[in-house]
Amino acid sequence: MKLVYFAWVRERIGRPDEILDLPPEVATVADLVAFLKGRGEEYAYAFETEGVVRAAVDRVHAKPETPLAGAAEVAFFPPMTGG
């Protein structure tokens, strides 16, 4: 699965994207965040505050309970404000 990181999420992780083979127990966006937090301190730092980082699954905004089955891409980005 391709993972894409934007703005300060990218800066904290230190890369714009990556391709990972996820273990079968990673079934939802929340599972993926938990999995990533265990990959190292840069990931733990990026996802340190639950619910702040937003996700999109195949370019559609997703909630933590959104399933990942069949998805090709998950993007993570900080909340945005208009102006």
From TrEMBL:
It comes from the Bacteria. SUPFAM superfamilies: MoaD/ThiS. InterPro entries: Beta-grasp_dom_sf, Mopterin_synth/thiamin_S_b, ThiS/MoaD-like. Pfam families: ThiS. This is Molybdopterin converting factor subunit 1. It comes from Methylobacterium ajmalii. The lineage of its organism: Bacteria, Pseudomonadati, Pseudomonadota, Alphaproteobacteria, Hyphomicrobiales. The gene is moaD.
